[in-house]
Here is the input.
Amino acid sequence: MKLFGLFHKKEKTTLILPQHIGIIMDGNGRWAKKRGMPRSAGHSAGARTFRAITRYCNRIGIRYLTVYAFSTENWSRPKEEVDAIMKLFHDYLVEALEKFRSENIRTRFIGDLSVLSPELLSLIAEAEETSLHATGMTLNIAINYGGRQEIARAAKMIAQDVREGKLLVNNINEKELSKRIYTAEQPDPDLIIRPSGEQRLSNFLLWQAAYAEFWYSDILWPDFTTGDLDRALEDYSKRNRRFGGV
Ligand code: IPE
Ligand code: IPE
Ligand code: MG
Here is the structure.
């Protein structure tokens, strides 16, 4: 809770918080392997970290947090592992539904959700509806999410609008595409965090990350603490973002 203290004690310091943070929650499998445990145990531990980091972000005033929980490519993992991850989504949703009112976090799900089980889909719908009017942070949970899938979907929506005469080909531009991505109406991520040592986006927020600052660390996601997040935020605060200017 260092930053929280820091932030409130020195309210007039120049610490600039990102409005929107993206986190690629990676390293669960290696964390479990190091302990001789099954990969699913790593995912359970990662889910605990997710809860703690989400609460912390909301508390220190982050407006938007997008977490990468399951990619369009993660289906290629063993069925046993995929099933364990789906069970964790289920358990999280059941628990979150009880806590939503006190946590004041607006929760949304992004990705191609159509392939999820009917049970998960109804919990997701309930979670989105219950937290719709929360005034705190907006949390986007990316499940069966892929940046390429998201852009292809937006292109398809544009094609349909053109066919129906709602949009002129000449008016297709970045703004029109941005209106059709999952995070439309939200600011682009300012900071993307990837633990576990990998230095790649792995299909996360490809469109939105155009000018995001990237922060990575060797810490495996289940070991990631609020202190690590503070370090990322302090580093971010010192970055010079030029957006192509001088
Ligand atoms: C991230 O951890 C969680 C998901 C991709 C669902 P990993 O399972 O990728 O962990 P490592 O990268 O194998 O350690
Ligand atoms: C990215 O991690 C996806 C999530 C964290 C949900 P991966 O472990 O799937 O990515 P790669 O395979 O290392 O690129
Ligand atoms: Mg991984």
